[in-house]
Amino acid sequence: MLQNSLEVAKEAIMLIAPKAGVSGYEQQVIPYLERIFAPYNLKISTDFMGNCYLEKDGLSGKQTVMLAAHLDEIGLITTHIDSRGFVHFSTVGGIDQRVLLNQEVIIHGKKEIKGIICADNPGSNANKKAISTEDLMIDIGYPFTKAQELVQPGDIISINRSPIEILNKRIAGKALDDRAGIAVLAVCINELSYLQHSHKVIAVATVQEEVGLRGAVTSSDNLRPEIAVVIDVTHAQTLDTKNQVNTLLGKGPVIALGPNIHPRIYSSLKNAAEENRIPYQIQPIAGPTGTDARAIQLTGCGIPTGLLSIPLRYMHTSVETVSLQDIVDGGKLLARFIASLPDDLEELSCY
To answer: How crowded is residue 203: how many other Cβ atoms within 10 Å of its Cβ?
Structure first.
């Protein structure tokens, strides 16, 4: 049964964004992912890497369209505890160090321990753009002996923040890179529930994208689909970008083109947007996209791959901001792209 796509997008974001799923430790997010897709009677499975597959049959079922959005988020990992009981850490993924100071975090050890990131003599860093991680630590409120009982080197650390809705259908919070992509998948599957499509669709929530596109490598090799579309985020204009970023928030999903993108997948996405009057933006990318598209394109003898991105402000911070309307439009575009595909996907494989 078709649900309101805006409600689908919002519910997906609000449910999955606050859950801790730092790269390599995504398993505890899977039950919430299953809840999002439960209404659609999909075949849901995981692999040894931790990727989650959401499979929807088509009318023919002979060929496969792979969709991929990464499930993991940036975070931190414990390195040691000093004699004062403060927990020291390293980053997992490219977290923006400028926003770490005074953040509330959760250390996932023997039990969940809340703490606050503080600085060792922050005044000495007054002229620096950011305090380095070497000068940051986590105050969990315990002396060394008790802290050592509760926290061990290697314990993963996540930012503790729930998403909030702000004006103009916008959501701000952590991990929207790429839980926004997961929401796009939810909208797409919801829309496909009343559209006819020939081909099997397997949406993959990939793992460890932030540390090397690892889940994309293994899942695409497992599936060997005829074509694939990756859903991720891209930088949107903010006050400090000084027109160096052309992508705008709230103006539609972004279709990438360039050597990492198969030209026929690009043109098919663009045509689907225009034929269905869905707003979209174009993003030329001269080199590797830095997304799962890079890994999937190079799988086996090569997989024709496209990239659809959601504009996002303040990337790799705890206040990443997206437009719910961009997510809805992205999901609708994907669904109509899939419904418009020819019976034989080999037509899209040639240049």
So the answer is: 26
- 226 and 90 both lie in a single domain: no
Same domain, residue pair 90 and 47? no
Q: For residue 92, give both structure tokens.
A: 């997992």
142 and 218 housed in the same domain: no
Cis status of the peptide bond prior to 178, with omega within 30 of 0? yes
pLDDT score of 243: 77
Nearest to 74 by CA among 178, 172, 197, 152: 178
Of 26, 73, 209, 320, the catalytic one is: 209
> What are the 10-residue block averages of pLDDT along the chain, 351 residues in total?
87 97 96 96 96 94 93 97 96 89 94 94 61 91 94 96 96 97 98 94 97 97 97 93 87 97 97 98 95 96 97 95 98 97 83 63
Question: Which of 101, 135, 159 is the last residue in one of the domains?
Answer: 159
> In Å, how far from its chain's centre is CA 203?
13
Domain extent for 211: 5-73+174-348
Neighbours of 48 (CB within 10 A): 7
- Parallel/antiparallel/unpaired status of strands 64-70 and 227-235: parallel
Give this prediction's pTM.
0.95
186 shares its domain with 254 = yes
In this structure, are 335 and 186 located in the same domain? Answer: yes
Handedness of CA 12, 195, 346, 327 (dihedral sign): negative
Backbone torsions φ then ψ of 154, nearest 5 degrees: 100, -15
In the residue annotation, 26 being an active-site residue is answered as no
| Both structure tokens of 252 | 């539609």
Beta-carbon-side half-sphere exposure of residue 275 (alpha carbons within 13 Å): 13
* pLDDT at residue 107, as a whole number: 97
In this predicted structure, what is the pLDDT of residue 133? 86
Measure the CA–CA gap between 202 and 9, rounded to whole angstroms: 19
